Amino acid sequence: MERTVFYIRHFNDIDHLTPVMWKILQKKHNVMAIVMDPFCRISTDLRLQFLKKFPGFSICYYYQLRRPVPRIELAGIFQQRALKRFIQLVFKCINRVFFSESWAVAVLSGLQPNASIFDWGGIAGPIRGKFFRASKKLNIPVLCFPHGLCALMDYELKKSRNGTRKVPDFVNRSAFDGYVFQSNYHKDMSIRWGLDPNICHILGSARCYPGWHELYLSLVPVFKSKNDSTGKIKVVFMLQQWSYKANKDETLVLIDKLSTKEDIYLVVKEHTRIGGRLSKSYKDQFINSGNVEFAMEEPSLALIRWSDIVINTISGIGVDVILQGKHLISPAHLHRIRTIYEETGACAIANNDEQVLDEIMKFQKNANRVDDYRDNIRELMDMVVYGSKGPHDVLESYYEFIFNKTSLTKSNNMQQAKVGRE
Q1: What pLDDT is recorded for position 70?
Q2: Strand order in the sheet with 31-35
Q3: How far apart are CA 3 and CA 30, in angstroms?
Q4: Alpha carbon distance, N-terminus to C-terminus of the chain
Q5: What is the mean pLDDT of the chain?
Q6: Which residue has the higher pLDDT, 113 or 420?
């Protein structure tokens, strides 16, 4: 039975691919999600559990497909996260030895997908690369969809492990049959790095499309602060990945200043990726604080819903703040990278700590501050949610894009078969 196959790994790509899978399922088509990360917890992921309610949805870890090794239930060991680094090393070796390209071809030949959909990235990887090459070999359209919302108007080169900085090379990604972006500026950036413009498509943000966002929010559990936050201004501070030219020391100074304000209750949300987290020793300084707590596992949407104000730097999560109608502050001095927030003026922009504190005090006097940015918010929404095409059904655009690609591929395959017979 034909189905669309999505290859998923981590929190972020699941976040952005789930609404697309939901749209396809609503159209009564079949969807299969192949999990490439053995540490991904299917059973506790509220988005994946939501999709499992649809009869046309199936999901499994890649090693559960046509097992080339004895039937050993490895998932339970991985889910416990015991000796994680050692297990990752062992599993890396298993991937190279047992999970070959011919194995991936056999898997896809059995599944007969109409399309293989990956999240942003290259064409290599111990499992990703094999499914990519197998898809190409079987003439299955290979598409690449967003795993985040790019809020950067320009790009600051990230430091590599040896301390050097280099321009990304996207030339190899031109092997995809379609590479999807939410915005024109991000597409232009990737083309400068070598991506073939002929495979680039602007479809907007599936993750931040209001029709999905409202449903997603209803799935998220309510956040409850550890201490009593009644009567205080509830502030959430979203941390960024430090490698994106973040001013980490200045960020910590601002957190310290906020923690001293008795009329503020502060929740610091650490980044979902390791590069945006705080040390235990730093967090331990606030153990006895009655107005500061740190969040790691709590969904960002739940924290935003709980908050009065959100401080966000370069993350696309700021769009969620706007969608929920909360007051957003962008502290430009903590990153010095041009973002969509400064570009559109869709929120309060602070250039030093004092301006951040001043914005919080202004909110205390006028809780309707968001109304000051309505026109700018419409500009931002058009730019990154609707792909500069005006309000429309973004998920329908993704659906049509996928099935137009599959129809074209089928037509080409039939034409080639006809020519071969002649």
Answers
A1: 47
A2: 57-61, 31-35, 3-8, 113-119, 142-145, 178-181, 200-202
A3: 5
A4: 29
A5: 88
A6: 113
Instruction: Report residue 28 CA to chain centroid gap.
Output: 25
Q: 410 pLDDT exceeds 70?
A: no
Of 254, 267, 240, 84, give the one whose Cα is nearest residue 151. 240
pLDDT for res 72: 46
CA pair distance 314, 247, nearest whole angstrom: 12
In the sheet that holds 327-331, the strands lie side by side as 292-295, 264-269, 233-238, 309-312, 327-331, 348-350
Both tokens of 332, joined, read 């430009």
Residue bearing tokens 């809780």: 367
> Tokens at residue 205, please?
């943000």
Contacts for 163 with CB less than 8 Å, ≥ 6 apart: none
- Mode of pairing for the β-strands spanning 142-145 and 178-181: parallel
Give φ, ψ of 46 to 5 degrees.
-65, -30
Q: Residues 6 or more apart from 26 whose CB is under 8 A from it? A: none
User: Quick one: which H or E segment has residue 49?
Assistant: helix 46-51
pLDDT, tens digit (0-9, with 9 covering 90-100), for 30-40:
999 999 998 88
Length of the chain (residues):
422
Which residue(s) pair with 309 in the sheet?
235, 327
Confidence of residue 412 (pLDDT cuts 50, 70, 90): low
